User: What shape does this take?
Amino acid sequence: MRRGFTLGHQEDPPLVRRLPTIVKLDEDNARQGFIEQGQYQVLLAALPDHLKCLLLVGYPCGNRLGELRKLEWSQVDMAASEIRIEKRQAKGKRPRTLPIYGEMTEWLEWQDKRRAPGCDFVFHWNGRGLGSHRKGWDRSCTEAGLEGLHFHDLRRSAIRNMERAGIARSVAMSISGHRTESVYKRYDIVADADLKTAARKMADYRAQQKPQLNAEGGHKVQIKYNALQAKRTKPFILYWGG
Assistant: This one.
């Protein structure tokens, strides 16, 4: 409704005289699902052949399913290790380039060998572009112990993995196709393993900050007193038994 009133107000002559105040409600509808590397391997083994390469591209790059369904071989440059997403495919109507790396190369070459005569789509079923993939996908997810996993959850997993790898956020957003950082941050979900790693690092750091024992077995702490506290400006050392 907000958008409708705005567009109407921008018409010449305006279709509405004034813009009403429409307050946005807080949203809490972001999914929390993602998969780890081990689960990804199990799912890859369970998927039928026509969906395997789809997973191999979607998991590392975080593509939307609609983009991959429309992907054609003319957009895949194996020599340059690039996949070009065209404006007509992208949800944000902005073209972008995806990297081909790791096992993506091998699987795309495998997919190329399976190319159906007269079919330009990279991902296809019996020579036609993929339509609904739900049947094979849901069955495979159940077999892999990932019942209820959505293909879009791979997008969240890819973003988290890029954050873990230390990829600059601007580059990661370019790969995933996010235009705003606020939406991107909704996908950066912290896993239990990440929290345990953070806890371990903090424990190690705190351990390094503990007072060191002196040669006599006592704790050595250096304390600086100012002139008002001790009528001296030089620091001195206190010892007490440990």
Notes: The chain has two domains: 37-190, 210-242. The chain has eleven helices and seven strands. Confidence is low (pLDDT under 50) at residues 221-228.
